[in-house]
Write a structure and sequence with these properties.
Elements (H helix, E strand, L loop, with lengths): L1 H23 L3 H23 L4 H11 L4 E5 L2 E4 H17 L7 E5 L4 H12 L3 E4 L6 H11 L3 E5 L2 H9 L1 H6 L3 E5 L7 E2 H6 L19 E6 L9 E5 H8 L1 H5 L8 E4 L6 H14 L2 E4 L8 H7 L4 E5 L2 H6 L14 E5 L3 H11 L4 E6 L8 E2 L9 E2 L2 H6 L2 E4 L1 E2 L4 E2 L16 E6 L13 H5 L2 E3 L7 E11 L4 E7 L4 E3 L2 E3 L1 H8 L5 E9 L8 E8 L6 H11 L8 E4 L14 H6 L9 E6 L4 E4 L2 H5 L7
Parallel strand pairs: 1-11, 3-4, 3-5, 4-8, 5-6, 6-7, 10-11, 10-12, 12-13, 13-14, 27-28
Antiparallel strand pairs: 1-2, 8-9, 14-15, 16-23, 17-20, 18-19, 20-22, 21-22, 22-23, 24-25, 26-27, 28-29, 29-30
Helix pairs in contact: 2-10, 3-4, 3-5, 4-5, 10-12
Length: 619
């Protein structure tokens, strides 16, 4: 009977040991599950690499497996997997008839529409590279993005604004011998690509029309947001494409075959194209898209399409939450939201209003980067965990950073120093065979500028994310600020994001964008907040009392700029550079500006007399 005792004793001891382990290491179960999911993602990606699987190939596989399953929904129209394949075949054949072959570049300047996805898939069958042009760009910025992509053919959506944008640079484009098409009826500037598509057969595209999928070569160019400089084109290879494409199958524990993902985010953004379309395509589920983001239609669309997952970026959910409360706010099927840039105040408001059951899969990552976090365990306000286990098996580190010098803080040996608990530091990602970063198209120095060398030892290299994050005592990682946005005042580092999170909850404030401005004669930068009011006038006394109660003296905005709206980038991030450059110069600013007066204990209107009298002693 001794063997029987062992049979029962060993599992019991293991169970007790596991329970004790979890008691002291509560993060362990979630970390193990996350690592298993990461391994699953890597296995999928490696399998596709061995098969040289292109975007078009995966669409063919799914069209054969689930031909009648809905792939794309928009307005009142539906496209099944088979219908999208047939459309992609015709688009690929149309591009082939124009001479597009492996390595050639096709530019897409289109709103969210199924044609965008059919063109991308069809182009991939030829080994072509699709450049996802930001539909908000105009004139020089747009021309710059077209030039760096070396586009041979430009296809424009049938929208008046986009056609006008092309008309303004038509001469420049023709000088570059770029063929211009519109996906619609022919115009004075553009030939009709849709008519050319209609002339093609819908037979599958022969494999020899395009090269095998080289995972080191780009399948598309996705541009950086250009918040501080002109946009850069990121070489997005299949390695990155299928990493995003494996998101739902690897990380969504509740994934069902009837899931419907809703996205009103622009398809030129990685969340919408790589996680949205590629993720949906790979998982065999459905993507509902809206032509353009609309906070007003967000929930009505989710209900219309019976969406179960919604994508977000930047300030989109803040806009959604700004709408008046409705009795049916919780009448929806959304079980999870996926995206990045969700600030804690909006996070809290969103869950309180629309349902605490909603899982927030907040992620951190850059299109070109190799540093990735995911709020896998659904912890409030964080982007993921950096436990001892994750440090052991991962490639990321948070290191001490000097925002004044704009460089790493190094020890006497010249090596980086790990940031302490709750200490903001620069996030870096070790570059290696398994952790590659995507290069920028163009001069090699553009990519080199994002690489740090000899970080922890001689010869190593790390991707510089340009972001400051911090890890708390529970190993939860929180986004703190962009490197260029953090400023120093009264000998302290100030996070624009943290101050914005406080100011936006102040009396009468609807939106806030915080940045640092220079005051002649003063060291560092003083805080300034551009705000949009809920209505009426700025509550100068109430706001003064509020910031004094909720912010340390060095973090309180010295200036408040009341504006009608806050400008966003094409990827819905707040623009700071223009605001920072304008500062509090009354000669170029028409908005009302207020000054924090500690003597009167309120914000007072800034006048030329006050501005000219600003000196270090006042602060």
């Amino acid at each position: 009977m001794d063997w029987l005792a062992y049979v029962f004793a060993v599992p019991a001891i293991a169970y007790i040991f596991w329970k004790c382990l979890v008691m002291y290491l509560p993060w362990l179960p979630g970390n193990i599950q996350f690592i298993r999911s990461l391994i699953s993602l890597v296995q999928i990606r490696e399998k596709y690499e061995k098969e040289s699987l292109r975007l078009y190939d995966r669409l063919r596989q799914q069209a054969e497996r689930i031909p009648n399953h809905k792939l794309i929904l928009q307005e009142d129209e539906t496209w099944s997997y088979k219908q999208m394949l047939l459309w992609s075949n015709k688009c690929g054949r149309a591009l082939h008839s124009l001479g597009i072959q492996s390595g050639d570049k096709v530019g897409l300047l289109m709103m969210n529409e199924p044609a965008f996805l059919a063109l991308w898939s069809g182009c991939s069958a030829l080994g072509g590279i699709t450049a996802f042009l930001n539909t908000d760009l105009r004139m020089k910025s747009l021309l710059y993005c077209i030039d760096i992509a070396e586009i041979k053919i430009l296809i424009v959506g049938n929208d008046l604004d986009l056609l006008e944008a092309i008309d303004h640079i038509k001469v420049d484009l023709l000088e570059r011998n770029i063929k211009l098409f519109v996906y619609g009826k022919q115009t004075n500037t553009c030939l009709s690509f849709s008519e050319l598509v209609d002339q093609q057969t819908s037979n599958n595209i022969p494999r020899d029309w395009g090269s095998d999928a080289n995972f080191a070569e780009p399948v598309c160019y996705i541009y950086t947001s250009g918040t501080t400089d002109l946009p850069r084109a990121v070489n997005v290879g299949y390695n990155k494409c299928w990493s995003g494409g494996s998101f739902f199958t690897a990380f969504d524990k509740d994934l069902q075959s009837d899931d419907i993902v809703y996205s009103s985010l622009p398809l030129y953004h990685g969340v919408s194209s790589l996680i949205g379309f590629c993720g949906v395509l790979n998982a065999g589920i459905t993507l509902a898209i809206r032509k353009q983001f609309s906070s007003h239609h967000f929930w009505s669309d989710c209900r219309k399409y019976n969406a179960t997952v919604a994508l977000y970026i930047g300030e989109t959910l803040r806009s959604v939450c700004n709408h008046p409360v409705q009795p049916g706010d919780r009448n929806h099927r959304i079980r999870a939201i996926v995206g990045n840039g969700l600030r804690p105040d909006v996070w809290r408001t969103f869950l309180d209003r629309y349902g605490k059951h909603i899982k927030v899969l907040e992620l951190y990552g850059a299109t070109e980067g190799n540093a990735f976090f995911l709020n896998y365990d659904n912890n409030f306000g964080c982007v993921g965990t950096l436990s001892p286990l994750m440090k052991k098996f991962g490639n990321v580190a948070i290191v001490k950073y000097d925002p004044v010098k704009g460089d790493l803080v190094r020890d006497k040996h010249g090596h980086a120093i790990h940031a302490g608990t709750n200490e903001p530091g620069l996030l870096v990602g070790k570059i290696g065979k398994k952790y590659k970063m995507s290069s920028y198209k163009g001069e090699k120095q553009l990519t080199e500028m994002k690489i740090l060398y000899n970080v922890f030892k001689e010869g190593d290299s790390y991707f510089n994310t340009g972001d400051l994050l911090k890890c708390d005592e529970n190993y939860h990682v929180h986004f703190w600020d962009r490197v260029g946005d953090t400023f120093r005042w009264k000998g302290e580092n100030v996070s624009t994001n943290e101050v914005s999170d406080i100011v936006v909850q102040g009396p009468g404030i609807n939106e806030a964008n915080v940045y640092g401005v220079e005051i002649p004669g003063c060291e560092g930068r003083a805080g300034m907040a551009a705000v949009v009011l809920k209505g009426g006038e700025l509550e100068t006394k109430a706001l003064y009392d509020y910031v004094c109660e909720n912010l340390p003296s060095y973090a309180r905005p010295i200036f408040i700029r009341v504006t009608a709206y806050l400008e966003l980038t094409g990827t819905l991030k707040q623009r700071k550079v223009k605001l920072r450059n304008e500062g509090f110069d009354l000669s170029i600013i028409n908005d009302k500006i207020f000054f924090l007066d500690n003597h009167k204990k309120r914000y007072i209107p800034l006048t030329d007399r006050i501005r000219q009298g600003l000196q270090p002693g006042l602060f």
